[in-house]
Automatic annotation (TrEMBL), chain A:
The protein's name in its UniProt record: Lactose/L-arabinose transport system substrate-binding protein
Entries under InterPro entries matching the protein: Bact_solute-bd_prot1, SBP, TAT_signal
PROSITE patterns documented for this protein: PROKAR_LIPOPROTEIN, TAT
Pfam families associated with the record: SBP_bac_1
PANTHER family per record: ARABINOSE-BINDING PROTEIN-RELATED, POLYGALACTURONAN_RHAMNOGALACTURONAN-BINDING PROTEIN YTCQ
Keyword set, alphabetical order: Cell membrane, Lipoprotein, Membrane, Palmitate, Signal
Signal peptide: 1-26
Coiled coil: none
From TrEMBL, chain B:
Domain ABC transmembrane type-1: 85-298
Subcellular localization: Cell membrane
Top-level taxon in the UniProt lineage: Bacteria
Membrane-topology descriptor: Multi-pass membrane protein
CDD domains named among the record's database cross-references: TM_PBP2
Any one biological process term the GO annotation gives: transmembrane transport
Keyword Glycosyltransferase: no
Keyword Transmembrane helix: yes
UniProt organism field: Nonomuraea muscovyensis
Main location group: membrane
Alphabetized Pfam families for the sequence: BPD_transp_1
The protein's name: Lactose/L-arabinose transport system permease protein
Length: 448, 306
């Protein structure tokens, strides 16, 4: 049973993460002979520090006792630096030539290209420690994401698909069948109905962009249309019909009064879940765990599906992002650090434990054989939540080039979105301005 | 009087002390200041010089290529730099004078002989200064939260519509200004108060004898007397405002749509978000030049004339 989904998963994740050489229809692929899983590292010694954030940090902490048993020579200190604070802290450490960095660094795909390209030597090449033996344990596309010019800079952890979490009880009250919604046009109609019947707004956005990640919905709508801020060549693709369509959907949602202001970012969003002030959280795989943890009393009220398509018959699956464990290039205990990353990411039991704990979806293929991913979830109304996202991973997904200039582009995009949401600006105009501004600041070309 | 004349006779003993000076003695003071000088050189001088050097490079993280004045040319053409400068300028022109006037009024009131519980009240006004920058920024962000903040709730009780603190460009600027005023007014008031208490009482007595009322005494005795500290507080507040970072960072993140973006925030974003250390250094030097020019201007107009 596990074999077929796995093979498809492999093929499609290859597409997802940009394994250019890998064909989607190529039979067995390189995963036909997966390497022996689990760390085989030597008896490395030393004290290592691990930098991560919130949920993943807690999960790694929980794995430490087992790790100490397996590697008595290594002591691990997992630190919850917080997200987004961790990016500033890693940058400062890299800029200081690696001084004060943790040994193991948890890095999102949005920052990984910048660290690899802008700080040569900042992240250790993991091949000398035998990272290559795990190449086929992950989706091959994932391996492309963490590799550059033959070097391997990290081991993949999460593969997150776009999701559409919703309060089934509220929609039921409004008489809306959420599973039947095919496009975002229908979502807007449903949202209007929902607001009329229940007084609850459809979803929330950090309108003034008080936190850096306020463009999540916009990005997802782009990725569902096989588009992003940059194309694979690094050209700016914000002055495109796809981008205008995405931002126009957000404007229409807002103009219809369906968008709650989540100024304050994360904390406000969590509060809104607890108080039930919005009915939809259009967030990736890992967010299910956050909802479950934030509002345990809402058990049975939530459900999840893949997001509706942007246009009739369009895509409903997108691998929106991934995260990875890297080893600092200046770490004095790189081998020990790698042993820990390997222990966390290449043993199915570790990843299954993490999935059970926080709902974080692994890129490690063999983990999906575990029944944990195929069980009905009591919190999500008896749905097989894991299979919903596994379904997404099986579908062809768009290759996202975050590029090393992502942080700068993100800031400019969120400002443009703020102008639309707060001042009613025209999506096409603000996106054109945003594209030009990114070009001015980065020297990249705008594709029009 | 007798005490003074006795003191005046003391110098011989002092001279005897200095005569004991030896070569070793001339080194000693340098040894004493050496640690401070070394620390200053290592943590101030070196970064300042290095930052200028860096501002001449096109940097991309750890990759650097010499680019001469390219970063400065880029600065002039960068709309976000001008937005940040404009925002900082508005806060400087509006918030600083208001705050200093408030501080002065507060200082005069706190100095009034009619006031009871002086120590307690002074402490009350100075306390905000002790609060950590991030802590009070967070506090204001929570209080001013448009949906769940206490301030809008209280305004609601009074029948006022919720104010879009932090989400509207103008209100966000006002919110940052309010936070700054809350934090620094007491601090400036204490400086004014210290000066007020050092003003010779006989000037007031003389003015009173000449028939000057309260306003005239303030206008012609207090204000001229406060002049040196007015310069001090003005220069300090100007420098502080131009370097403004913590409050907008915590409260608004520079938003919405760059309405509270300051030079400090923009510098930080370029260095630590975009890995563009050369450009960030150029912003820092532009900032230093602006602070220098404003400082000179303020000294010229408010400083003691020779």
């Amino acid at each position: 049973m596990a074999n077929l989904p796995r093979r498809r998963f492999l093929q499609l994740s290859a597409l997802a993460a940009g394994g250019a050489a890998l064909s989607a229809c190529g039979g067995e692929g390189p995963a036909a002979t997966p390497a022996a899983v689990g760390p085989t590292g030597a008896a490395a010694k030393g004290d290592i520090t691990v930098w991560s954030w919130q949920g993943p940090a807690a999960m790694m902490k929980a794995l430490v006792p087992d790790f100490h048993k397996a590697f008595p020579g290594i002591r691990v200190d997992v630190q919850d630096i917080g997200n987004p604070a961790i990016w500033d802290k890693i940058t400062a450490g890299m800029a200081a030539g690696g001084q004060g960095l943790g040994d193991v660094l948890h890095i999102g795909v949005d920052y990984l290209p910048a660290y690899i390209e802008k700080f040569p030597g900042g992240l250790a090449d993991l091949r000398p420690f035998g990272a290559d033996r795990h190449r086929d344990s992950f989706a091959p596309g994932m391996w492309e994401t963490v590799s550059r010019e033959g070097k391997v800079y990290a081991l993949p952890w999460e593969a997150n698909s776009a999701g559409f979490y919703y309060r089934a009880d509220l929609f039921e009250k409004a008489g809306v069948d959420v599973e039947a919604l095919r496009t975002w046009d229908e979502v807007i109609e449903a949202g209007i109905k929902l607001k009329e019947k229940t007084g609850v707004q459809l979803l929330g956005i950090d309108k003034p962009a008080s936190q850096a990640d306020s463009a999540n919905l916009f990005q997802m709508l782009l990725q569902l249309q096989d588009s992003f801020y940059f194309d694979m060549q690094g050209n700016i693709t914000l002055d495109t019909p796809q981008a205008v369509t995405a931002l126009t959907i957000i404007k229409r949602l807002n103009d219809a009064g369906l968008v709650a202001d989540m100024a304050g970012g994360w904390n406000t969003m969590i509060t809104s879940i607890k108080s039930g002030s919005v009915a939809v959280q259009s967030m990736p795989t890992w967010f299910g765990g956050i909802i479950e943890e934030s509002a345990p009393d809402q058990k049975g009220k939530w459900k999840v599906r893949l997001p509706p398509a942007v246009t009739e018959g369009g895509k409903v699956a997108a691998t929106v992002n991934s995260t990875h464990l890297a080893v600092a290039g200046t770490s004095k205990v790189r081998e020990a650090a790698f042993a820990f990353a390997e222990f966390v990411l290449t043993r199915p039991e570790s990843q299954v434990a993490i999935y059970k704990g926080k709902g974080i979806a692994p890129a490690l293929m063999s983990a999906y054989d575990d029944p944990a991913f195929h069980e009905p979830s009591a919190f999500f109304g008896g749905q097989k939540k894991g299979e919903v996202f596994l379904e997404a991973l099986k579908q062809p997904s768009y290759v996202t080039n975050y590029s090393a200039d992502y942080p700068r582009a993100l800031k400019i995009v969120t400002d443009a979105q703020s102008r639309v949401l707060l001042k009613g600006a025209d999506p096409a105009t603000v996106l054109k301005e945003a594209a030009d501004l990114i070009a001015q600041q980065t020297g990249r070309k705008v594709l029009r | 009087m007798t005490v003074l004349t006795q003191r005046a006779g003391a110098p011989p003993a002092k001279r005897a002390l200095t005569r004991r000076g030896r070569p070793a003695g001339t080194i000693a003071p340098y040894l004493f200041v050496a640690p401070a000088l070394l620390l200053f050189a290592a943590f101030k001088l070196y970064p300042i010089a290095w930052s200028f050097w860096l501002s001449l490079f096109r940097t991309d993280g750890a990759l650097q290529t010499f680019a001469g004045a390219a970063n400065y040319r880029r600065l002039v053409a960068d709309p976000l730099f001008w937005t940040a400068l404009g925002n900082t300028g508005i806060i400087l022109l509006v918030q600083v004078p208001l705050m200093l006037a408030l501080a002065m009024g507060l200082a005069v009131a706190l100095n009034s002989p009619l006031l009871r519980f002086k120590g307690f009240i002074r402490l009350g006004f100075f306390m905000p200064m002790v609060t950590g920058l991030v802590a009070y920024g967070l506090l204001f962000a929570i209080l001013l939260n448009p949906q769940s903040g206490l301030v809008n709730w209280a305004l609601g009780l009074a029948g006022v519509d919720p104010v879009p603190w932090l989400t509207d460009g103008l209100w966000a600027k006002i919110a940052v200004g309010l936070a700054l005023t809350w934090h620094y007014t007491g601090y400036n008031a204490v400086i004014y108060l210290a000066r007020l208490q050092a003003l010779p009482k006989d000037h007031y007595d003389a003015a009173a004898v000449d028939g000057a009322g309260a306003w005239h005494r303030f206008r012609h005795v207090t204000l001229p007397g406060l002049r040196p500290v007015m310069l001090l507080t003005l220069v300090m507040s100007t420098i502080g405002t131009l370097q403004l970072f913590d409050e907008p960072y915590v409260m608004t993140g520079g938003g919405p749509d760059n309405n509270t973006m300051t030079l400090g925030l923009y510098l930080y974003a370029n260095g630590f978000r975009y890995f563009d250390f050369g450009y960030a250094s150029a912003i820092a030097y532009a900032l230093a030049v602006i602070i220098g020019i404003l400082g000179v201007v303020q000294f010229k107009f408010l400083g003691d004339k020779p």
